[in-house]
Each structure stands twice: as C-alpha cells, then as structure tokens.
Amino acid sequence: xxxxxLLSTSDVHGYLFPTNYSARDDTQPYGxxxxxxxxxxxxxxxxxxxxxxxxxxxxxxxxxxLASYLATAAPQQAALFSKLAQRLHxxxxxxxxxxxxxxxxxxxxxEEDRNYPLLGANIDGGHAQGIIDAPYQIxxxxxxxxxxxxxxxxxxxxxxxxxxxxxxTFQSALATAQHWVPKLRQRAxxxxxxxxxxxxADPATGHPTERLTGENEGxxxxxxxxxxxxxxxGHQHRQIAGVYHGIPTTQPGDKAVAVGEIDLTLxxxxxxxxxxxxxxxxxxxxxxxxxxxxxxxxxxxxxxWLDQPLGHLTGxxxxxxxxxxxxxxxxxxxxxxxxxxxxxxQVDIAATALFNDDVQGFAPNVTRRQLxxxxxxxxxxxxxRITGADLKAALERCAxxxxxxxxxxxxxxxxxxxxxxxxxxxDVYRGIDYTFDLRQPVGQxxxxxxxxxxxxxxxxxxxxxxxxYRGNGGGDYPMFNARKVIRxxxxxxxxxxxxxxxxxxxxxxxxxxxxxxxxxxP
Length: 522
Description:
Number of helices: 14
CATH architecture of the largest domain: 4-Layer Sandwich
Oligomer: single chain
C-alpha cells in the first residue's frame, strides 16, 4: 500500500505574515508563514511509503501591502516569491489571474531561478513568453507516476488590459482538460488537476451558483472529464473539501487560512482504494520560525513604508465606519476616489466601489497604510463612451445589490455574498443624480437618473471613468466592454490618489448627496 498526500495553497495574495497591515501590531489568524509551518510538519511526518506533493495554486504575488511594496517600490526583490516556494519544497506552481496584474515582466521577475515547474495547459503562448514551463508534469515517486495538469481561469482577458497579456491566449479549462486527461491517464497512475478557478455550480448537487461565463468551470471538470483522480481548486476564496462525484476536491480559502489536503491510498497494483479531502486550518499554527526570521527585515521595511504620510484632509470625514450606509447614501471617501478618477479621466462621471467591509477610509492625516488598505487592487482606469441605456443598466445592476423587506429594512443580496463575497461589484457614482426605489422588482429600481439637472435619455452619449476591471465587464456588467473605451489611464488608482494628495497637500472632504434610496412608503 502507498499513500499519496497532495498539499496545496491557493490565493495567498502575498500575505506572508499574519497581518492585514491595518496597524503595526495587527495579528490575524492566517498567513503563509503559518501555512508553511503546517506544510513542513506534514512533509516531515511522511513515512517511507508515503508520497507528498506540494502545489501552489496561484494568486501568490499580488494582494497584500507587502506584495504592493515589492511590485512598486522594490521590484528588484521580486524573486523572493519563488525563493520562498523553493524553501517550502513546492513541487509545482499554477498561475492565478492576479499573477498578471503587474504585467509579464514583473511576473517573470517573481519566478526567476525556480527549481519547480509552472504548469499551464490552457495558456497558449505561455512557454514562449517565459511564464509557463509545461502544460503538465509527471512526478515519479516510490514507483508511482503522478501527473499534475495545470489550468488557469480562462476569464483573465476580461479583467486584464491587453498590454499585460502580450502573446497569450486563454483556452477553456474544461476543453483543455478533456484534451489532456485521457492522454495523461495512459502515461500516469494518478492524474491530478490543479485549477486556479472555482465552481459555477454546487459541487455536490450541480445547482447553478452563477452565470456560465467560463470564469469558473470546476463543476464541469468534476462531471465532464472522466479520469481525474484529484481536483485542486481556488480563485473564489471559498473553503471546500470533500469527495464529489468520486473525486476528492479542495479549495483552501484565501490568505492561507487553510492548506488543502487530499489523501489517496493505492494498493499494490497502484489502484486507488481510498480517497479523502480536508482542510488544515492555520489559525492556531505558529509561523515557521526560520522563514519568519528570514523575512523580518523586509517586514520592518514594509511597515515603515506604510507609515509614510501622504497628505492632510479637512472637511467631511473620510473614515468609513458604516459600510452599508456608505453604499446606500454615498460617502466622502468614495466621493474623493471618484473625484481623483474624474480628474484623471477628464470627465465628470466616475464610478468606484467600497471593495470590502475592512475598508477604513482615510484619517485626517493620510498614510500609505490607509491608502493600500482602502484601495487594495492595482487597478488602472478607462474612460468609456456609453449610452444612457448602458448607464441605467449598470445602475440596475448596482440596485440589485440590496434586499428590502416589508418593513423597509435593507440588507445585502445573497447574490453578492454567496457562494463568494463580491461586495466590490457594487459601485457608487459621482456626476449624476440617481434614485433607487427598493420597493420595486430587481431590474426596475432606477426611478430617477439625471445628468446636469436633465433626465438621461436612452440614446444619450455619456463618458464615464471606471477601473479597468469594471470597464471590461467584470462583475457581471456586460454593458461595459473594451470596444467602448475611448481613453486609458495606465497609472494605478493608488498612484493617482497618491499624486493627487501630493499636489493637494490639504484636501477638503465633501459628503455627496446625489444618491437617494427609497425603501418604504412615506
């Protein structure tokens, strides 16, 4: 009998230390250093007949303030990411969608001097661009041949600017697996699919959980690709572990809150006789001491970098304390971000989101720490020329964010929280006046929409600035797309805000009054 253990991390997003960087003394129940200690323990416990494969399933190099520091202030240190993976004896890596956020040159720098392969069967051109080593890898250990097929969500071109994807074409993960798995079945004893993507339907029941866009094809992999022995997933930041349709499957959340573990037991004929999947939670695991010591100087530098002052604010407070109220009525912080976007885009209509409920906004003395905690993505901006009908459709999508009961109590629609929390898919606008009547059915809630005090007509031409994720239709906004872009601002919003504060060292916060919400009879 042989036992094969598959350990996986996914969507770490550069959270090496157990902190969200909201303060120097912040401590959180997650972080790669906790996961590293747990993985090292599992590797050390392996017996003479045990096989352990460790896989990083993508979204490794972007997200945390430390990751932002490396990408923007110290790119010469980017190879740290591959060096850390090597210290952990990672056997293979998969690219996530956020690996492309800083462009291919930075991605290549992050992956320099690797001793493990990056796998990507559905990224055509990936090898030529120096970001993919092979579609799959066959590992032979203890007389067992284990094939690992790498896949990445094919939806990346919807989110990323073309300049970040030079020479690349993304194919369907499902179609790619249908091509490769039968071939690997003939060459290996065990076939593992590592997919930086999630589930478009409940993995057990098949009940749809989102539109079929090609972003997430996990359920189809489970049910339409015979021959898969284990499925490692990610991207959605969900915590999933179970045996679905006979296939042990994991998805270990984000920020290294857990490590995915799949255990396969093989008999003497190398047939799988037992299969299990579980998540190993990292909350109570002490960070790996040697790795923490190695990273301590970098962490201290990042903390000092985050505490650098950027500007001073007066007027209405830009600190966010009630996130639902900020989304319902607008907020001085959101108005400020829209003001920066409008200035950069040279338009007067702008849209931005309160990305999550950890956003704190800005204190009177703004630091880089506040900025990166409030705007955690490296988004750039686009200006699109759209119609009044497009704008109304986008606002109806925003209005669907809310639920409203018979007593007028307002909440957030489960469609924006389940199965994945997607609070970033609700936008607040500047430059228009608009009303949501939450008593009306979804799709009929925008009851007033004016621009320069005149009603917006369906065929009216309007220029709107937004981040490129939304501008490409991300978040289920098909009324926006690259064909409507008339201008690109290829500077990150974080840099635009920082530059704005440098040019306006004292800025006055203004509370907006252009969004009105009706939830009950007068």
